[in-house]
């Protein structure tokens, strides 16, 4: 029911005036305007005559407006028109594109050209990477020899013309039909004989070039700049010649000869004409004969370009410097070769020395079962003998022997003596130290004896740990190894089984005794005549840590009786603890392979355990629920095994 | 050493995992920026592939054209398919509509490269949760593959499942067709 139905008009007005105060008039005015706009919209809808009428009126009105009013109306109308135009464009994009292309086409073309130009820059970078590395090394080397700054040499070289790569590309597939790669020294290689990575690089580049060619042709159309020809980069050019079947891509560095275009054009025409059949039937590979023929034409093209370059090119203005440069290069080459030779000879000498020392070691009969190796240490510039010897005397004998046999060699020794070093420090307990110090060398040489000693030492450490777990340090132990990790750690799991087993046996005994006599006492107060003489102080913490309550997939207790007894036990134990101790309820939801964890199960089972504890008299503020524990993944929840079910554990927090 | 270069197009709707599948497989790739501008990106994988009948090993340079998804109306798609020796059609297990779109891509491929080997890959199978929806989608993909006469390979780009097998299978089909 509306407000109008409840109040007479006058009363409604009065109420409105009361609530709105001075704004009442404005609200009324806006409502009236809204109604009028609705009416006008209604009139205009699907009525061309009305639209025409309104247009005429609007024109007159706008014309008659002056100053601020006119500006205001124009602003409003402009915003309205823009929104409507945007909506219309969205609704009928193709027709609008058609309509505005004469105006916007230039901008679009410019945008595409810019994008393509950027893409080609990337292609150029990809093609020039290996050359750049080579070039940098070359320039650095020349700078080193001549003592001139690298930048100066770099600048001088940029003018030199060099054809870096020629690729014949299948236009349909973008695959390289064949290619030629020329090194700085003038060696030309068939790209098919390049490494896989260079071949792959060429294939990717040629693929992208064909894609760009197709794209630009689609964007600009034939004769509208769709065919790329020469692309200038900082110090290189990409010359592209195309037929519907193939592309010829030539990358040159430096100032090209003036006739380059005509040379490429002529050779390209001849190649396409002479090999029309082979190129037309390219299906990923060419018959060897055809490939070799095209290769030879590519080489001919390369020669022609070189020749044109040598017949007076701008870059040759610096020709007078060439002999000096050649001499410097030759000198550099000789030095480089010499350095490499020295390095090789040195490596051979070192390897020989190491092998000779190793042979001497291997010949010592008493040390044949021991791992002793000779190696070369660059930091010490000497042959280092490393390994294990039975005793200090053997180490001394070996050292003397090697020094006598190889008097001119620099030798150093890093030999370990079994009697003190064979046992890793981490495993060396007090007993080992004692034995090591007291036992004779002959005894310690016996590997079995050493092994037994280690085992004895470990057993002693385990015994100590057990003692710590069973005594007053149990709290620390329980905190260090929380219940949460029990089923992820087999050793802790076994410990939990042991403690849990004790608990189960005790609970069963208690049940039995409770059935036999009244006031049989609590679990740990069975007295001398009971089954257990263990004192609560020795067991309580580990009992808490070992107490787990299982839950099935639906979150029900796997053993209600056990859950009741366990919580009663924990409650009794908690009562003996000082004020302020907290009982942590550790909730662990078992993950099942291939399924998501059941939502909120962790809090659900923890709350159930908490409810049982409250029923046993534990105050709620003494408990703290902790979730998020990890457990090993199982194929299915199995309530019969705590290792395959959800569970809640307990821990005392002081 | 690779001596045979073959163009392979990879098509499918947006976000079906085309690029992820390729990236799982290839050794060389181009700048990712290209795809946004041109609607295509080229990758390369040089590998050894076995001929399905003779058992001989062939070195092939696979030039993989990763064509932007959703180019159904673009005339560029046709242009990019020209010269391909084979194609992979990719669909997404979690989006049944991508399987329906396979028809369109298949028809385009058949018009541009008729009779060339094509394989349908159902990607993202690692997300299979056994739910009725996904089971139904899988059945739909199987039916689609059968109807179009395509081999269906269930892949996971994120886990790498069946990715090498997908490309190797297509390469073998290409080799067989060359006989």
Would you write up a description of this structure?
The complex is a heterodimer of chains A (about 650) and B (about 180). Chain A is of the alpha+beta class. Chain A contains 22 helices and 13 strands. Chain A has helices at about 5, 10-20, 25-45, 50-65, 65-90, 95-145, 150-160, 195-220, 260-275, 275-280, 290-310, 320-365, 390-405, 420, 430-440, 440-445, 445-470, 475-480, 490-515, 535-545, 560-575, 600-615, and strands at about 160-170, 175-180, 190, 230, 235-240, 245-255, 370-375, 380-390, 410-415, 550, 580-590, 625, 645-654. In chain A, strand 1 and strand 2 (about 175-180) form a beta hairpin. In chain A, helix 6 packs antiparallel against helix 8 and helix 15 (about 430-440) packs antiparallel against helix 17. The longest helix of chain A has about 55 residues, at about 95-145. Chain A is flat, with a radius of gyration of 46 Å. Chain A starts with a helix and ends with a strand. Mean pLDDT of chain A is about 70; it is low at about 1-5, about 315-320, about 420-450, about 470-475, about 475-485 and about 515-540. Chain B has seven helices and seven strands; from the N terminus they run βαβαββαβααβαβα. Chain B has helices at about 20-25, 35-40, 75-80, 95-100, 100-110, 130-150, 165-179, and strands at about 5-10, 30, 40-50, 55-65, 85-90, 120-125, 150-155. Chain B has a seven-stranded mixed sheet with strand order 2-3-4-1-5-6-7, with helices on both faces. In chain B, strand 6 (about 120-125), helix 6 (about 130-150) and strand 7 form a beta-alpha-beta unit. Classes of the chains: A alpha+beta (about 650), B alpha/beta (about 180). The interface of A and B includes residues 200, 211 and 284 of A.
């Amino acid at each position: 029911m509306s407000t109008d139905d409840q109040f007479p008009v006058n009363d409604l007005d009065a109420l409105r005036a009361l609530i709105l105060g001075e704004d009442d008039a404005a609200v009324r005015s806006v409502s009236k305007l809204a109604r009028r706009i609705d009416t006008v919209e209604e009139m205009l809808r699907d009525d061309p005559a009305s639209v025409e009428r309104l247009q005429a009126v609007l024109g007159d009105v706008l014309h008659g407006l002056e100053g601020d009013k006119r500006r205001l109306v124009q602003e409003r109308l402009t915003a309205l028109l823009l929104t409507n135009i945007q909506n219309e464009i969205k609704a009928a994009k193709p027709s609008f594109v058609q309509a505005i292309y004469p105006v916007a086409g230039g901008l679009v073309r410019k945008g595409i050209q810019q994008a393509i130009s950027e893409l080609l820059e990337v292609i150029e970078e990809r093609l020039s990477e290996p050359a750049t590395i080579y070039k940098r090394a070359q320039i650095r080397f020349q700078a080193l020899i001549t003592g001139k700054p690298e930048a100066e040499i770099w600048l001088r070289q940029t003018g030199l013309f060099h054809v870096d790569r020629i690729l014949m590309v299948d236009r349909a597939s973008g695959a390289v039909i064949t290619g030629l790669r020329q090194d700085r020294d003038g060696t030309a290689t068939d790209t098919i004989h390049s490494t896989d990575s260079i071949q792959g690089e060429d294939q990717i580049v040629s693929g992208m070039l064909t894609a760009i060619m197709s794209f630009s042709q689609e964007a600009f159309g034939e004769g509208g700049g769709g065919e790329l020809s020469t692309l200038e980069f900082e110090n290189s050019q990409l010359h592209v010649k195309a037929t519907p079947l193939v592309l010829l891509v030539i990358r040159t560095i430096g100032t090209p000869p003036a006739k380059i275009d005509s040379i490429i054009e002529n050779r390209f025409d001849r190649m396409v004409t002479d090999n029309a059949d082979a190129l037309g039937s390219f299906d990923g590979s060419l018959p060897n004969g055809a490939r070799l023929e095209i290769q030879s034409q590519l080489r001919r093209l390369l020669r022609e370009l070189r020749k044109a370059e040598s017949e007076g090119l701008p870059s040759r203005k610096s020709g007078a410097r060439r002999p000096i440069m050649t001499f410097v290069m030759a000198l550099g080459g000789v030095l480089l070769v010499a350095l490499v030779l020295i390095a090789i000879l040195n490596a051979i000498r070192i390897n020989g020395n190491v092998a000779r020392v190793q042979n001497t070691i291997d010949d010592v009969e008493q040390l044949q079962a021991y791992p002793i190796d000779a190696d070369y240490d660059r930091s010490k510039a000497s042959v280092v003998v490393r390994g294990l010897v039975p005793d200090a005397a053997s180490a001394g004998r070996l050292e003397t022997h090697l020094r006598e046999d190889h008097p001119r060699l620099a030798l150093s020794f890093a030999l370990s003596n079994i009697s003190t070093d064979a046992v890793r420090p981490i495993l060396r307990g007090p007993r080992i130290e004692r034995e090591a110090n007291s036992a004779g060398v002959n005894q310690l040489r016996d590997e079995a004896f050493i092994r037994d000693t280690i085992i004895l030492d470990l057993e002693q450490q385990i015994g100590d740990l057990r003692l710590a777990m069973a005594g007053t340090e149990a709290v620390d132990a329980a905190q260090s190894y929380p219940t949460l990790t029990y089923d992820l750690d087999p050793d802790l799991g076994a410990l939990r089984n042991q403690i849990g087993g004790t608990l189960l046996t005790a609970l069963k005994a208690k049940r039995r005794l409770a059935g036999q006599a009244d006031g049989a006492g609590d679990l740990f107060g069975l007295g001398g005549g009971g089954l257990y003489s263990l004192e609560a102080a020795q067991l309580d913490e580990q009992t808490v840590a070992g107490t787990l309550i299982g839950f099935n997939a639906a979150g029900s207790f796997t053993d209600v009786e056990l859950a009741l007894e366990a919580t009663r036990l924990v409650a009794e134990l908690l009562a003996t603890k000082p004020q302020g101790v907290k009982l942590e309820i550790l909730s662990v939801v078992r993950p099942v392979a291939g399924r998501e964890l059941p939502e909120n199960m962790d809090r659900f089972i923890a709350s159930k355990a908490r409810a049982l504890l409250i029923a046993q008299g534990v105050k709620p503020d003494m408990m703290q629920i902790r979730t998020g524990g990890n457990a090993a993944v199982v194929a299915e929840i199995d309530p019969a095994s705590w290792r395959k079910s959800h569970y809640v554990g307990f821990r005392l927090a002081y | 050493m690779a001596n045979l270069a073959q163009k392979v197009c990879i098509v499918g709707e947006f976000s079906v995992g085309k690029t992820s599948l390729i990236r799982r497989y290839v050794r060389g790739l181009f700048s990712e920026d290209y795809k946004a501008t041109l609607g295509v990106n080229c990758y390369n994988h040089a590998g050894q592939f076995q001929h399905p009948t003779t058992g001989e090993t062939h070195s092939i340079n696979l030039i993989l054209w990763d064509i932007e998804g959703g180019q159904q109306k673009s005339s560029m798609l046709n242009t990019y398919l020209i010269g391909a020796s084979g194609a992979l059609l990719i669909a997404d297990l979690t989006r049944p509509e991508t399987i329906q779109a396979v028809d369109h891509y298949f028809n385009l491929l058949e018009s541009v490269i008729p009779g060339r080997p094509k394989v349908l890959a159902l990607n993202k199978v690692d997300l299979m949760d056994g739910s009725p929806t996904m089971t139904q989608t899988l059945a739909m993909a199987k039916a689609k593959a059968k109807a179009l006469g395509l081999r269906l390979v269930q892949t996971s780009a994120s886990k790498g499942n069946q990715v090498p097998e997908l490309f190797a299978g297509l390469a073998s089909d290409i080799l067989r067709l060359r006989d």
